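We were asked to recover a plausible sequence for a given structure. The inputs and outputs are reproduced exactly as logged, with field labels preserved.

PROBLEM: sequence recovery
POSITIONS: 476
GIVEN STRUCTURE:
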């Protein structure tokens, strides 16, 4: 019994010692994550609240028995005694440069500055030593106006009011300093021409029209007005309309046709007989459908075509055509103008051929003035003044040797447009490699051996000089 009691006493003492040892060990152990968890301690994360530019504790963790000052790792190596303070640091600004904003005529600008992306503070210097509440302002520049004097409008040119324009921003003000939206508000429209009554420069006849020319009293502008031929009936609402397929006839082209309800009506009434229809060019020249060879005109259906033999004898100019009923001349169509135009031509002067490497030019004469900028060779426009030129009257075109000698031998076409109505005139010309128009001919046998014959004659002469004395010496 005593033995058992001793045994139990020993066991109790051992248990007590182990318990005391364990408590002492845990009490003295570092406060890492495991011991804190075992003891029921709470770890608290304390982020750094130090403002930019100040010094304060770093981001750290705290527990009831000490401080873990590393914000990322809680371990023995980062624990210090609770009586110590957390590590401190000075927080720097994170500055971003803001560029200078230049002032304009009307808007203020700002000087350059630096702004912290963490605290929002602004500084006038890159080092962040001088804090500012707002960027330093740059005053507006104000307009720098230049005055433009008033200019009166004419028949040919626009005018303008007196105004001012800023040389920096282009702002526009009128004479009362009111701002304008655009330069269009400063413009004054052209004035109308003052034509007066005009002057008749070509008297009308019974067949041909005349011309009245007007000249503006305020400028050099002119305009022409056609005076109808005196033999043309006046147009009224009671007349039949007359329409031409083309109102202009160029020599050699297809003749125009004329159409009217009256023509169809008379042809139908006459069973297709054209002798019921007459065509008149003025009152003095009536046309008739005679024999086929001398036909002035012919009618088919509702159309009338003028005869080529008759038209070719008419001079170039303006004519008034109208159709009437031969059985009743009071029944007729409107009169319409019809124009005959001689086709302009372009012809070579002296020659149409140029030999390569020759210093001669080629000249061409137009029947009416041409546009200098419309000259083409082979369909390509000529721009180089060293290649060609057009005379002041627009009638002569000259191609220079510099241009011609750059071409290869062959056939070319020169063309230009007339000043009057842009009609194209053209003419062929030729570039030759030799004056004969072909490449250099091969030398003939006589020509190719000319040197050989010369050498032979020299040798023969020398032989005579040597042999003649010998012959005389021997008495031959």
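RECOVERED SEQUENCE:
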């Amino acid at each position: 019994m005593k033995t058992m009691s001793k045994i139990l006493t020993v066991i109790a003492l051992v248990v007590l010692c182990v318990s005391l040892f364990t408590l002492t060990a845990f009490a003295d152990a570092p406060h890492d994550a495991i011991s804190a968890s075992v003891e029921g301690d709470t770890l608290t994360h304390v982020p750094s609240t130090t403002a930019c530019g100040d010094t304060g504790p770093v981001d750290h963790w705290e527990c009831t028995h000490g401080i873990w000052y590393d914000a990322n790792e809680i371990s023995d190596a980062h624990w210090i005694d609770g009586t110590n303070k957390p590590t401190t640091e000075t927080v720097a600004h994170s500055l971003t440069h803001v560029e200078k904003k230049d002032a304009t005529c009307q808007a203020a600008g700002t000087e350059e500055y630096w702004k912290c992306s963490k605290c929002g503070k602004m500084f006038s210097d890159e080092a962040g030593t001088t804090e500012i509440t707002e960027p330093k302002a740059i005053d507006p520049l104000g307009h720098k106006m230049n005055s433009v004097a008033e200019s009166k409008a004419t028949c040919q040119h626009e005018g303008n009011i007196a105004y001012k324009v800023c040389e920096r921003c282009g702002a526009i003000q009128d004479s009362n300093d009111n701002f304008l939206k655009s330069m269009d508000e400063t413009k004054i429209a052209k004035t109308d021409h003052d034509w007066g009554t005009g002057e008749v420069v070509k008297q009308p006849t019974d067949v041909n029209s005349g011309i009245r020319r007007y000249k503006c009293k305020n400028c050099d502008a002119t305009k022409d007005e056609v005076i109808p031929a005196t033999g043309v009936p006046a147009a009224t609402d009671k007349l039949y309309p007359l329409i031409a397929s083309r109102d202009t006839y160029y020599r050699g082209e297809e003749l125009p046709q004329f159409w009217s309800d009256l023509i169809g009506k008379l042809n139908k009434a006459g069973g297709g007989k054209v002798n019921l229809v007459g065509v008149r060019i003025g009152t003095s020249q009536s046309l008739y459908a005679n024999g086929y060879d001398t036909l002035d005109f012919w009618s088919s259906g509702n159309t009338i075509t003028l005869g080529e033999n008759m038209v070719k004898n008419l001079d170039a100019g303006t004519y008034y055509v109208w159709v009437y009923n031969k059985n009743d001349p009071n029944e007729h169509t409107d009169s319409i103008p019809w124009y005959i135009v001689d086709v302009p031509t372009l012809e070579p002067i002296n020659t149409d051929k140029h030999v390569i490497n020759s210093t001669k030019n080629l000249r061409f004469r137009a029947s009416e003035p041409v546009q200098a900028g419309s000259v083409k060779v082979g369909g390509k426009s000529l721009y180089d003044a060293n290649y060609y030129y057009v005379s002041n009257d627009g009638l002569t075109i000259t191609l220079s040797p510099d241009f011609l000698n750059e071409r290869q031998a062959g056939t070319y076409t020169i063309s230009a447009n007339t000043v009057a109505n842009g009609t194209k005139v053209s003419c062929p010309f030729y570039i030759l490699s030799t004056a004969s128009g072909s490449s250099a001919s091969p030398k003939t046998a006589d020509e190719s051996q000319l040197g050989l014959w010369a050498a032979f004659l020299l040798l023969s002469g020398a032989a005579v000089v040597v042999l003649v004395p010998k012959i005389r010496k021997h008495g031959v």
